[in-house]
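User: Sequence for Ropporin-1-like protein below. Tokens please.
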Amino acid sequence: MTEHKPTMPLPETMFCAEQIRIPPELPNILKEFTKAAIRTQPHDVLQWSAAYFSALSKGETLPVKERLEMPLTIEKTEAGLTLGLLKVLHKQLSPKGMVNVAELKEKWKHLCLPEEQLQAILQLDDFGEEVEWMKFLALGCSVLGKSLLSSMKHACEILTKDPEGGAARIPFEMFSFLYSYLASIDGDIPKEEVEVFLHKIKEEADKQSGMVLLRNFLSQASTLF
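Assistant: Structure tokens for Ropporin-1-like protein:
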């Protein structure tokens, strides 16, 4: 009978500082990742981190807010859609025009947003397997805004190419589409009233090279709401 000798543990490998090679790009990657996490404040850091590095490796738009959003109340701790997160989704999905619902769900999950909130938004219209992004954006703004006026304000802030705090201009055609769509979803504003309002907005937009200025919209809206 063969006698088995006890296996001797392998000696621990010793490394000196000169043997450890740190990839030169690693510090900057970790620095940018940390800054992105602080700005975005993901509800689930591990889930968001996986989405972040996956997008980074594929050269896709990162799931990162442009700036830190302060909560409306100190007590608010639950995850939910915010203007900053909706803007992230817009950057990721708007180039497609038509978005597959499965991909939308994936991006939504990457931002650690509750699935039931997404389902509630999708149920506001008769969407199939694909969603027209601008319509979804409008519905997202309506969830945040609670009223047509504030919903359109949010839409202008997301869609404008002006710097933050600027005029928040968007093309009249885009404004008209979003306003008409949300008014139809709301159902409480008569079609004739919508047309009269958009006519007034167009008159102002024609003076601004076809662009709707947020302050002009709010001024006109004060006579309607």
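Residues 35 and 64 are 10 Å apart (CA to CA).
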